[in-house]
Amino acid sequence: MKTIDTIIFDLGGVLIDWNPEYVYLDVFNGDREKMQWFFDNVCTHEWNENQDAGYPLAKATEERVALFPEHEELIRMFYGRWEEMLGEAIEGTVAILKKLIDHEDYKVVALTNWSHETFPIALERFDFLHWFEGIVVSGEEKTRKPFKDIYELTLNRFNIEAQRAIFIDDNLRNIIAAKDMGINTILFNTPEKLEEELKAFNIQL
């Protein structure tokens, strides 16, 4: 195995906690079944991912309201109260990131599925986002994981050799896509497990 010189981090679910339940569980008075129905049928994961690929939030909202007018108030909350869905930093992973940055032997970048309209909120809230050599934001590139082009763009932009990089993500679909590109991968579970797996790649922490 070639020596690793680059670490590529996903952000949401790895370094930053984001969950629409922080808004909707209260709105649905704790009824998880009703809330899940809403996520499965109205403001779906697939719908939100479309905005991660650069689709305008306002347009997406109006289109969804037109489809489900009876749920207009709930739909408008999704991006209207988006900032409340943004939780805290996942401190254990931030500590690992800091060690990697301080080590100075590694190029450390991020590749995230995130709307370009909401990402500035995260940039303002989380100082550690400014530690990276660079961040590829899907919404700015008008594509997203797991599509091949966003991985190629990341490798090319930061002059990364796939075999010398590790990609960390909490989504198995995105991990599989990176593996197909020849990138080493770690499926994120917990910061403790991540530290173990990085050490297995002989990463100095």
Task: Write up what this structure looks like.
With 205 residues, the chain is an alpha/beta fold. The chain folds into two domains: 6-17 and 87-200, Rossmann fold (3-Layer(aba) Sandwich), CATH 3.40.50; 19-85. 50% of the residues lie in helices and 14% in strands. The protein is built from twelve helices and seven strands. It has helices at 21-27, 32-41, 45-52, 57-67, 72-80, 82-85, 91-103, 119-125, 138-141, 148-157, 172-180, 191-200, and strands at 6-9, 16-18, 86-89, 107-112, 135-137, 165-169, 184-187. The protein has a five-stranded parallel beta sheet, with helices on both faces. Strands 2-3 form a two-stranded antiparallel sheet. Helix 8 links the parallel strand 4 (107-112) and strand 5. Helix 4 (57-67) runs antiparallel to helix 5 (72-80) and helix 7 packs parallel to helix 12 (191-200). The longest helix is centred in the middle third of the chain and has 13 residues, at 91-103. The two termini are 19 Å apart. 29% of the residues are buried. The mean pLDDT is 97.
